[in-house]
Amino acid sequence: MLCVRLILLTSFLIPLINCQTIYELLNSFRFLNEGSISKSDIYEYQYEYVMYTEPENVTRERFAWVEEIARPYLYQRDSTKPLQCDSSPLLSATDLPGADFLSIIPSSADPSLCHTLCCNYMSCAAWSYAASSPVDFNDCKKEQPCCYLKTYVPKSLDNPNIISAIMNRTFPYNHPPTGLRSAVPLGGITTGSIELRGDGTFHEWTVESQSPASGAKYGVVGDALLAIRLKNLQTNETDTRLIRTHPHHDLQGIDTIRYHGSYPVSKLELIDYTLIANMDLYAYSILKPGDLNRSMTPAIIFSLNIHNPNDYPISIDFMYNAPLSVQIDQIRLSKNILQQIASDTYIQCISLCDQNSLCASWNWQNMNNQSTCILYSDIGNNVHLNGHVSGIRGQWTYDKSGPLVLDRPGHMPSNGQYVLWPFLSSDQTITATVDNNINNILSNFSAYGGWYQQTEIKGTGANGAVSISTILQPGEKKTLSILFAWYFPHHNWLDLPLDNYYSLLFNNVTTVGQSIGIDKDDNQLKLILKDILTLHNVYFNSSLPNYLVDSLINSASHMRSAMYFSNGDWRQWEAYDCNDVDSVHNDHQRHLPYILYFPETEKNKMYTWAKYQQADGMIQETFTVGCMGDTVPYDQHGGRNMGDVTTIFILETLELYRWTNDFNFLKDMYSHVVAGIQWQLSVSTEFGLPEHLECTYDIPNMSQYPTTTFNSFMHLAALRACMELALIMNDTNTYNQCYEPFIRANKQIDQLLWYKDTTDTGYFLAYTGGAGEKAIFTDALYGQVLAFTYGLGPLYNISIMKKHLESEVRLADTPYGLRMLTGREPLTNPQDNSIWMGASQDWSVLNLWFNMDPDSALIQSEKGLNLVRQTLNDQWNVHGLYAADGYGIGGKPWVTSHYGFHMVLWHLPFALSGQYTDLAKGILLFSPKLRSPFILPVLIPNIFGTISSTPLLNGQSTYTFTLTIGKLSLNTLAINNAKYPSTVNLIAGQSIQWSG
């Protein structure tokens, strides 16, 4: 018997939020990661072997942000351990062939230089020296001396022309705390972002429309800084601090900063027993699922929570300085020189450019042994170059009651506006200043808590700063907030001008601030915090394990590299270091938070993929081709023949239709689906399985083989989706065209790809053909992952698929995750023996659907994600591939930074809840894998909530469905086959309850 109850939460939930103070709302944010950075810590970069990754400093324009072979990676030095690096004894007439990651011509024919070079690279385990290289090899040239640096020690061979050595070295380095290698990217969706790291420094600055299609990011902006000044109002003693652990100015820093991140929020706890107040700094941007325009606000808010624990009153001043008129270690690439003027300091370049009405930008660099200001009539793209400084023409304005604005007029990407704008209330005061010398700014702030003599500003200056001040009585708690916003409407793709979409939402940077009510009160600030908290609580208040909650919330920061143009195009790089755009297969790995938070972005891409479909029906791989090289012109579409592109287009058509109930979208896509099926069948004629197609796992070159299990399961999933779509469209002919090949493909997989290695065990072969090896591939069943999430059910015999998953662990497990390809190459070959971040997540997804105990099923997922979260402490820069053991860098980043491969983890909450969504039919079903009691998230595009279960004494359960965001109408709702007895019509804040 069913008992039904409607619970209205709206009436008390919103007032509860509204009656909370900003301090309380900020304090209610939760975090599942932390890193403590202390002023005594020593941090150093060490060079390590990679295939390719993104560098911190970018030295080329219009080119992938990529660094190959070796990259610097930040470590914490353990000062209690010795640093040793020697290579005695030398092994004369001995070669160590193989394992080379670098081959370098030494500055002279001296083998000891190989030792020095090897010590410079943390990954170097041995070296060989040839006085005369026998052949050209990497960077070495025939008949010239060469140092061959090696990541592991290969087997030695006699060679009279080679000297070698094995390194004897210590590694007094630990992974640094969370928040130093990477941090939450702050800034509106598609508006660029900035990271505030755990030591108080600002990194990864892309708000001036920087990208691989234009100029370089600012790797670190040293003089962007926050500071506080505390005053004991009884004794008038003051204490001024930079919010830094390692300040590079005269002011003292903070003893320890404890960093936490839950996208889009960073929290820095200021821990210092000498401070007379308790303080937490929050930095955050706007994120509101279902409201893309609101989420595209180009701004960061810094909010300082202060508690006065003393029995005397205190005052506090809070400041932010931004060196926006100079870019240190950056150079502008232009040939349009107006003047070259000798100058001992780069500061002079600012005024020289301001005095020349034709000057648009400048560089300060060495010309003929003389420091020189070079003025340009245009603004070239910027790139990193040590010792150089650049700047852009601009003017600061301020009056006592308003914001501090830097205006850079013009039509290039770096033309636009910045604003520094404190949130002012009746018990607070604000000041502002502009100065070429940051030490003047800091000394006046330390002396007076602001710059009260400057009531109006109009002019130039390297730095702009604002402050806000208040008084706290004993025991009082307050919040001081400063808005940092920008407005850079122009975006260049090579020479093609494109405007950012957010330029249609705002007229200038002042309207950005006004859109969040900064000129009125703090109610909009409360709404911003409430929107983020409401989303976070969907995950935090659930029964999901902590590692997964943390990963779900923070993986959405991958949106940092998305672009949205005023012509209506949504675009995103595969990665900054692999500069193709929206490759279908890579996009689908990361697409679930996009389709859930902002579904219009996925439909936007689907229409473009359909637009570029080939005449033979193949969906092209990418909007803009490329990787690791020059960026090609906008929408120069193309790519490879792949097994996970056209198939994914078909699957995503079904997914979007079922999850958004958009029949017009389906009608628009259906002819492209039918054409795609024709192509899919045309490349599967010989075996009934896809033949010689590439896939997202492209490094091992498996397209050389007749067919692969990965592509075959993608084929099965697409054929099943085709059948569902054909039924919806009443298309019997297409249904039959997909049904019969589906049956044949199942049989062919059985005959060609299933392999029993013992009586009781077996697995799907990675591929057919080869040299007789029986290799296993650990994401072979990805097509089945997609089929389950999109409601297509099992594609193949479940017991056989379970055996394959058991063999993945038996044959391919590592301490870091599942090895990609095992059995083809020795473990010293990184091409096969690396950890691709999707396999471990998909293993866990499938075992949940196969009803394995959840704790056991999640082992691989947790291991893979915790490598990044808790070992490397680098979860806002998840790489696509990590190294396995065998070639010297096990568990370290190997290929491609800021990547979305791990985001297949978003299939996990669907597997845990067993969610089946078909809004076109008004059906929402759950088959949870957790025992009652539980709370699990409900995830539908623009609609979020929870389901919960409480066991009853009669063996039944009470089920509650709570809607948190959006509105929902259903014909059928059921949990564990217990059906809600009527239709459902809910808005955010409402719940229904029943038992069964």
TrEMBL record:
Residues 1-19 form the signal peptide. One of its GO terms (biological process) is carbohydrate metabolic process. Keywords: Signal. It comes from the Eukaryota. GO terms for molecular function: beta-glucosidase activity. Residues 183-506 form the Glycosyl-hydrolase family 116 N-terminal domain. The keyword Aminoacyl-tRNA synthetase does not apply. Residues 643-807 form the Glycosyl-hydrolase family 116 catalytic region domain. Pfam families: DUF608, Glyco_hydr_116N, PAN_4. Residues 94-150 form the Apple domain. This is Uncharacterized protein. It comes from Adineta steineri. The lineage of its organism: Eukaryota, Metazoa, Spiralia, Gnathifera, Rotifera.
